Amino acid sequence: MNYFDTKIEFLKGVGPQRSDLLNKELDIFTFGDLLQHYPFRHEDRSKIYQIREIHGDMPFVQLKGSITNIETLGEGRKKRLVARFTDGSGAIELIWFQGVNWVVKKLKPGVQYLVFGKPTFFNSRINITHPEYEVLTEANEQNRGLQPVYSTTEKLKKKFLDSKAIAKLQINLLKEVHDKIHETLPSYLLEQYKFVSKREAVIGAHFPKNTQILQKAIARLKFEELFYVQLKLLQQKNNRTVRYRGQVLSRVPTLNEFYKKHLPFDLTDAQKRVIREIYQDLKSGHQMNRLLQGDVGSGKTIVAFICMLIALDNEAQACMMAPTEILADQHYQGLKEFADLLGISIAKLTGSTKSSERKKIFAGLLSGELKIIVGTHALIEDTVDFQNLGLCVIDEQHRFGVAQRAKLWKKKSKASPHILVMTATPIPRTLAMTLYGDLDVSIIDQLPAGRKPIQTMHWYDSQRLKLWGFIKEQIQLGRQVYIVYPLIEESETLDYKNLMDGYESVDRAFPEIPKSVVHGKMKPQDKDFEMQRFVKGETKIMVATTVIEVGVNVPNASVMVIENAEKFGLAQLHQLRGRVGRGAEQSYCILMTKYKLSKDGRVRLETMVKTNNGFEIADVDLKLRGPGDLSGTQQSGVLDLKFADLAKDNQIIKEAREAAQSVIKKDPDLQQNEHRVITKQLSQLMKKGAAHWGRIS
Ligand SMILES: Nc1ncnc2c1ncn2[C@@H]1O[C@H](COP(=O)(O)OP(=O)(O)OP(=O)(O)O)[C@@H](O)[C@H]1O
């Protein structure tokens, strides 16, 4: 057994009761778990302040002095202990509201204490409430420095382990395991990046002597963490090309016919390049695993359709999977337009498909008569089987994981189907490297010709009359207008009211103009009816909640008004704005807000006004919200990174990827002696089943 797997109850100072606490509340079961329970910050205790130096907004101070007087004041709930504390330069009050009886027994006037806490001003006097304190000894006077702060067990319970108690356990543990902390990176990487050893890093992350040591420790641990994520991703990518045969999809007769007779517009150079990249994969004999990134409106649908045609031209079927019914529906409509031109059979399968229709679809897929299927998760159910699935397009929107993708591979086909993952929200490069590091990447970085950049304005509610005037003008020019209200999922009723209030004021402003209204509570067929009226141009204004966020395509709509724009995230605002600017006319996006905005809110709106570039927006979004939020709830916590921050550690992510790439290139099967440390560590990580391996294995 690995020494680090020793049960935590065998550590000096733990015992059954504490072991139970550690297990239940901190998920610490073994020596290894405790060692990896790193402090979330350090407090600098190297400096001792003088009382006269204390001023208003200091976060924490450490003082050395003695107590001159202790008294208990008040009764019942107001009872408090007040100790007067002096260091010769001045005096302050130390106050306790809780544990009064206990503290009063412990504090002794005249004894020298080290006191640590946050000073506050109350009644023009300085005091520290519930300070930490300890009797000054030679040892603790010398040991001052950076003190680790650990997350602790639940404070409200009777028995609880505070940060100090955990630090003591860590000291005991480090004594035990010191000689057993082995290196986990090859020595040439340590040299190349001038990293400290693993042992130094672990000790430095818990008990650094100074900030420099702490930084060095963290830098190495961040790198290591990201290096192993990257290594696993690249290994997987590598293995797949060796292990999974892909169907050779090389013939393209129908595609040629489509190009000659039906192509509704010239493809952009970026679309052509991406199609070439994909075609190379499809005919290579290896399974394709590619991420297609394209900004809103960059024309991903036709690219997906063309790839599907290649599959069909080689006696295979194709599917497209979307994260929501609405999206599945929109993709279905988009693809059907092209499929109908060539008489290709296409169907849609979602949770709400009727069972008689389902039966027909299943039979068609199995016999091979049905060529293209578009749907939601329903597609990965076990009942769905294909005659020969050749290509699977996944509109990911960050909502599916690799595990689900893998399920699609198991569908009946001659070899693993080729996988094309599509995202409409650009992902910053370093984040894509980590979340989709096992995929090749193609980017459509060009919009179709003739598009004018959308002009974005930020107006306040007080400018509403100007807004109505502007809308009127645009409608007179023959254009159509979206007015969107936010969807705050917790309160559907409130959303509905908000939308309807909005609708009424729009109605009052434009009584004669035909309008559509669409919201989440409507029956699908009513929604469809209203959408169609707008698509056909029968209605000029579409008042809606964010149900229209993705995929809606009405080129004549040139104005997007977003009400309460501060309530939307950047990616969402960008998606919504992408609903206009799809035709040749100048388009506008107007962000309406109240006056008071949060700092982040202001940055979001300024970013929208400043740029139309989805990648730039994604970068700002990542900085504001962090990767967890950006990539949707499913992804947060998937990469269980203890040290690295995907939003901030760009440089380290790049280095870790480069290092992993060079290792795999040099020694794909990790056979070389110098890589023994890597194989050992990898198997350790796999055994532990760390959360992040869940996503990428
Ligand atoms: N090369 C092109 N030239 C002209 N128009 C194009 C071209 N490619 C696509 N289009 C049109 O541009 C519009 C947007 O395309 P599409 O819906 O595929 O975009 P998308 O990338 O899926 O964006 P979104 O994610 O916003 O839906 C459609 O009306 C489509 O027909």
UniProtKB/TrEMBL annotation:
Claim: Nucleotide-binding is one of the keywords in the record: yes
Entry keyword set: ATP-binding, DNA damage, DNA recombination, DNA repair, DNA-binding, Helicase, Hydrolase, Isomerase, Nucleotide-binding
Catalytic activity: ATP + H2O = ADP + phosphate + H(+); Couples ATP hydrolysis with the unwinding of duplex DNA by translocating in the 3'-5' direction
GO terms (BP aspect): DNA recombination; DNA repair
Domain named Helicase ATP-binding: residues: 281-444
Entries under Pfam families matching the protein: DEAD, Helicase_C, RecG_dom3_C, RecG_wedge
GO molecular function: 3'-5' DNA helicase activity; ATP binding; DNA binding; hydrolase activity
Superkingdom of source: Bacteria
Coiled coil: none
Listed name of the protein: ATP-dependent DNA helicase RecG
